[in-house]
C-alpha cells in the first residue's frame, strides 16, 4: 500500500478585508466589509470584527449594511490582492512545486515529498504560516490531511490564524460526528434533502449503501459515499489549464428570458474578446463548449451548455448559440432573471484550423 | 395478477420493449415495464415518454391485473434462465414473484397508475409499404441524423410523403442522406413528419428484411407501427425540417465515376493519417485520376491514387473523411458517381446506376 499523501490546504483569513486593514491603519480593529456600492452587489469579504454581526461573504451588501450599520464599506481593489497572492504563492513554492491555487486566497499543496525537508507536514504548515505573517503581515489558517477534501475541512477548524491536522488513523473518528453541511458541495438544499433521509452527520451518511445514494443523487451520490469514508483521490494539480472564459452581469432589474437577448449578445462579445486575447498565446487552445448561465430572481442558478461538432468560429456564432440555449430552459415564462452569463469551456489544443462548411444558412 | 409463459415466447418481445427503457430516468417508474394481464393476454409496455413499445403476448392460466416491474432486471433474469423453461409470474401484495424451474425471484413493483402511457392517437392517415424496403431506406440514411443539436428538428429523420413516393431524409447540418421509394398508395397531399432519433433506431431494430408489409399510422403528433405482437408509438418532433431539396446540388457538374470498394478502401487508409478531430482529406481530381491526400498535425502524410472516369481537370476539395466513408457505406452498387463544383460547394454522391439514394456533403475549408 502506498504511504498516504500529505496535503495542506492554506486559506488566508478574511483575505481582502485583512489586506485593507493592513494598508489602512484606520480600519484596524473595526468591522470592515469589502464590497462594491450598488443595490445588487454582494460582500466579497468581511473582517472578523464584522462577523459577530452576522456579516458573511457572498451575502447581499445591503443586508450586510442592515446587520452592521457601523461597518466601514471598502470597494475591492484586486490589483493589490493579486500582488499579495503572488507573494504567498512564492512562499508555497519554497516548499513544494505541487501547488493548486483555488482562488487568490486559497490553495492546496501536496507536501508528500516537500523540498524544504521539514520533518512533517505539520511543521511545513507552521513554517508557511509563520513566513506568510512575516512577509505580508497577514494571517493564514491551514488544514493538514491525507487528501484535499479533509484538508479543506481541517483548515476551517481552528480559523483564524490556526491549523489542524487529521491523521490517516483519525479520519473515521473525525468524520463520524461531523455535520454533513461541512462537506464542501453540500449546501442548504442538499442538507435538507439529506435530512429527509435522516442524514444529519457524516456518520449517518455512512450507513447508506452506495447504490441507494447513487439512485437518489446520481453521480454526486457516489461521491458522497466516498467522502463519508474520507476517500478523495483527486490529485493536487498545478496545471493551470484554461477551464473557462466567461462574462456575467447582474441586472439592476430582473428580466424575462425573452428580454435577455441584448445582454447575452453584449456578454458574448466580451467573452469572445477575452477568448481572442488568450488565443494569441503560445499554445493556442480552442473552446468547444458554449455555456449559458442564468440566475433566477429567487437565486436559483442554472446552466445550459452545448458542444457543437465544430467549435464556434465567431462572436456572432457564440452569441447565437447562447441565445438559442435559452430554448432549453424549462422554467415557466413568468420566471424573471437577475443574472446572465456567457462562457466558453471544453478547451482543446488548436492543432488545426479546418472549418466544416454548413449545408443550411441557418446554423445556430 | 398471475400468468405462466415459456421463456422463448417472452424473451424476444421483452427485449424489444426493454430497449426503449433508458438507463437513466427522470422518473423512477420509467425504469419499469407496465405489465397488464387481461383475457389470457399480457401486455408489456416500456416507455421513455417519447417512444413507447408494447408487446402483447398470449399466456397460460392468467388472472387479470396490472403492475410495473423493474425492466432491466426482469429482462436480465429471463435472459439468464435456461432454454425451454416455463416461467410463472404472480403479484403478491407489493412484490412480484417469478418462478422458473428451481429459481425464485422476488421483484419490487410500483403501481400501474403511476406509469405514463400514450393514449389512443388521433389517426389522420395510413400508409403501407414493404417492411424490407422501409428498413432499407432507414438503414441507409439514419447515420446522418444529428445528435443533441440545438436545431432539435435535426435530431431525427424526416419522412416526406406524397401521393406516390416516400423519402427518408436525415442531416446533421454538414451532410445529408436521402433515400426514396415509390408507394403504391401514397397520401392525398404532401405530408412531412420528423421521427425522433431514438424512435428511428428502435424502428430499425424492430423491422425485419422479410417480405411482409408494414403499415404506418400517422396521428397529429404520433407515429404508430404495429408489427406482430409489438406496437411501436413515437411522438413526432414538432418543428420544420429545413428545405433539404434546396441543398441537393444541381450545379455540381463536375462528374467523377469510381469503383465504390476501391474508393472506400483508399479513404480508409488515408484516414489513418488525417487529423483526429477534423478528419480532413483533400480530393484532387485530374483527367482519369483521383488523388486523396491526408495530413495530421505531426506532418505525416498519406497519398492515395485511384483510377477514375472523369474529364475534370484541376479541382481540389477538402472533406471530412468520416462523412465520405459513411456515405459510401450507405450506397449500393459497384460504382459510385461523385458530383463536385468547387472547393466551397457541396458534393453529391450516388450510385452510378440509380439515384434513389443520394448523399450531400459540405466541404471542409482546408
Short description:
Chain A has 364 residues and is an alpha+beta fold. Chain A is 34% helix and 22% strand. Among the domains of chain A are: 15-78, MutS, DNA mismatch repair protein, domain I (3-Layer(aba) Sandwich), CATH 3.40.1170; 176-227, DNA polymerase, domain 1 (Orthogonal Bundle); 244-360, Dna Ligase, domain 1 (2-Layer Sandwich), CATH 3.30.1490.
Primary descriptors:
heterodimer; A: 364 residues; alpha+beta; DNA polymerase, domain 1; Dna Ligase, domain 1; five-stranded mixed beta sheet; four-stranded antiparallel beta sheet; 12 helices; 34% helix; B: 366 residues; DNA Polymerase III, Chain A, domain 2; DNA_pol_Y-fam_little_finger (chain A)
Could you explain the architecture of this structure?
The complex is a heterodimer of chains A (364) and B (366). Among the domains of chain A are: 15-78, MutS, DNA mismatch repair protein, domain I, CATH 3.40.1170.60; 176-227, 5' to 3' exonuclease, C-terminal subdomain (DNA polymerase, domain 1, Orthogonal Bundle); 244-360, 2-Layer Sandwich (Dna Ligase, domain 1). Chain A has twelve helices and 13 strands. Chain A is 34% helix and 22% strand. A five-stranded mixed sheet of chain A has the order 5-6-1-7-8. A four-stranded antiparallel sheet of chain A has the order 9-12-10-11, covered by helices on one side. With 364 residues, chain A is α+β, with helices and mostly antiparallel strands. Chain B folds into three domains: 2-114, Roll (DNA Polymerase III, Chain A, domain 2), CATH 3.10.150; 123-245, DNA Polymerase III, Chain A, domain 2; 249-361, Roll (DNA Polymerase III, Chain A, domain 2), CATH 3.10.150. Chain B has helices at residues 7-18, 71-80, 131-139, 197-206, 260-271, 321-329; strands at residues 2-6, 32-38, 41-47, 51-58, 60-63, 65-70, 86-92, 95-100, 103-108, 123-130, 156-161, 165-171, 175-182, 191-196, 213-219, 222-227, 230-235, 254-259, 280-286, 289-295, 301-307, 315-320, 335-340, 347-351, 357-361, 364-365. Chain B contains six helices and 26 strands. In chain B, strands 6-2-3-4-17-16-15-10 form an eight-stranded antiparallel sheet. The relative contact order of chain B is 0.12. With 366 residues, chain B is an alpha+beta fold. Chain B starts with a strand and ends with a strand. In chain B, helix 1 (7-18) runs antiparallel to helix 2 (71-80) and helix 5 (260-271) packs antiparallel against helix 6 (321-329). The longest helix of chain B is centred in the first third of the chain and has 12 residues, at 7-18. The interface between A and B is medium-sized, with 23 and 29 residues. Strand 13 of chain A pairs antiparallel with strand 26 (364-365) of chain B.
